[in-house]
């Protein structure tokens, strides 16, 4: 650090922010003392989010991440706030929550449900099947870096997030001098990098400190005064002997010029030419494998891990770190390009992103400029929150500011976790699917214990949620007795195989997950007794249609039942996939026969004679909430392929009536799911209407999905939905080949555009151009040799593909 003076009081005193830094509790809200006197003249880059004021609430801040470390940057001038997360920082600890009474009372619960004594079944299940404890602990914020500068007025202010480079920038002019602050979180460096620069030498003065709501200390590093330490352990402030995860973070300052003083948990910098702050964090979370098999070395020292990262970065300058970050990020992001032009592009390019979101209501449509951003923002979020070797994206992806965020920011396995990964394959981010597979594999020993103790079954199970500690028992309430989570999750490695064609992955990773989930299902299902509908068929008992309820003939309201439609559709999907996998791998003929036999005894998807809609339960019960957010009984339409307008037109028509009944509103993730379903029905106008509703009513200023509160699954589900408006490949043709459907759900509002790099099943890369709502041309790049089946406007053709040679498709071929 040339021309730099460093001073420090060698103190490890725990302290709150000093008087010169703001004194307040950590909340959702934030105020910057600076008066913004003018904003920069905007000419917004096509794939940048731009704003003309700092974030006033957490949901306006801009997210950065590398799969392990996440940050929300507020963009303040005098008062900046950077809230951080580390993906393994969870409260709680390993435990065995399985109720020891479960297996003993399960037959009685099943008998009560078959007899229509739902209330008695609920009471017995609540006391004998629920996890002990029935609630899990939350994912938590790592902490926050609060920074201040003596700039109480600013001109030409702007803050932005460039989706093409994953760089956040805040810039303004103070007393005629331009100041620029640039931030990113690098996967190669495993660190956040913040760089301050000014248009004047010795122009930078800065103070900063660590903050956290609880369980922490902030101190000067006794060995290096350029480093400010955050350390803590979950539960250390509580009046209990229970202690949780340890965590640490280091903020390392690298100066060009200036003077630095580090004392009592505060860094003060004066007269610097440039300031770079490197931030890294770690916990002592041992990993699920080490929890399941405790003989393996487990805990690590989080502070030592941070030191190792900081030491590895000493020889890398800011520009080197920045370039390595951009190259790493763009290897994923640049694979797909979507271009939906706007006639008023020049006018729209001058609007901030929050203004664009507000504009949608006035226009009664979504500007294509915003659809482009929204689509790529979803891909950006997946790249930022789900990297190989780290935890999968949770309910909030990677970002949560509270100690106890909504729904624990956990892994909900009855739609939300799965939706997080819907865009992974189709938008060409296949490697980012692997954290979900790693979590799934790690859950198996916990799920095997639950399957055995609660149900006396082989295989493995997870119910409607899980966490970082391998919780697989029923949670929250009786609605948590939904043992279908493992069967649904098992669809994801199978789809990964379908998109990649990776037989080794199928053999080593996917098939063991699928087989274990199927073994549980085959043991769990029971035969329907005489006197009931579908007597002699096999079904699930107990069962739920997630979070929905119905009215019994007696007038009693219940949600607990047997044979919910979603269960059967998930099971059919899983068993069919297992049969196909055994054929591809030439293995397990006896298990294949068992799956095939069970498939013949599954209740078919039923259509109500009264309403013409898909029945949600085994009996045609009336719903308590017609517009319920879950559309679980249409699992067969999406994400499965059991219902399609090509192969099952009668069921497709019933699915359409079901969607019309559910309505065009709901939570963000609910709208995203329904958009995908309308896509599968090839109704692009209805799909677009719901996309408009989602963006105009359920999207926050920073483009996060607003459940409310914020849940990230709506972002991911909508990104996948936009992709499937343009390309689908889930339907099989008469020869059992996946059919590539071009522009299957295109709205007239998106009547011109192009997309490159989308993926179809069979490991085909697809590029499409269209004009006036009609196909202009498409290119299909196969990964191998063989037939390629293509559909457009209701007509099908077949072409022969050769590895490495693009197959050109024109509309004339379908005439």
Task: Provide structural commentary.
This protein is of the alpha+beta class and 815 residues long. The strands form 7 sheets. Strands 2, 3, 8, 9, 10, 11, 13, 14, 15 and 18 form a 10-stranded mixed beta sheet that branches. Helix 11 packs parallel to helix 14. The N and C termini lie far apart (70 Å).
**Largest sheet entry:** 10 strands, mixed
Strand content: 15-25%
What do the pLDDT scores average to?
94
Structural category? alpha+beta
- How many β-strands, per DSSP? 34
Overall 3D form: globular
Radius of gyration: 27 Å
Summarize the amount of helix as a percent range.
25-40%
Tell me the number of helical segments per DSSP (H or I, 4 or more residues long): 20
Question: N-to-C terminal Cα separation, in Å?
Answer: 70 Å
| Uncertain stretches | 1-5, 7-20
